[in-house]
């Protein structure tokens, strides 16, 4: 993955962390910012919300992270994890 894409993914992860805010307006703004960042250079991003508050993200390139493998092994699909970034 390019350094630029890694930087964007890092920013997306920060936004997803802010999306855990109890302030619904702040959380919604963080999600919108994450989507805007993803639209810049990334065509597909997979996101899993864990335990109702933690977000995991993967760009769909390279080896699948353990959480993706566990999701698929438990009967989930990648399509279910695909974020709507349109």
TrEMBL record:
It comes from the Bacteria. Residues 58-82 form the DNA-binding protein H-NS-like C-terminal domain. Residues 8-40 form the DUF2786 domain. One of its GO terms (molecular function) is DNA binding. This is Uncharacterized protein DUF2786.
């Amino acid at each position: 993955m390019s350094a630029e894409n890694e930087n964007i993914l890092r920013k997306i992860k920060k936004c997803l962390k802010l999306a855990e805010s109890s302030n619904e307006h702040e959380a919604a703004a963080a999600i919108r910012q994450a989507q805007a960042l993803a639209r810049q250079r990334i065509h597909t991003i997979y996101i899993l919300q864990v335990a109702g508050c933690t977000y995991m993200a993967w760009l769909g390139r390279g080896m699948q992270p353990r959480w993706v493998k566990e999701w698929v092994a438990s009967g989930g699909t990648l399509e279910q994890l695909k974020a709507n970034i349109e």
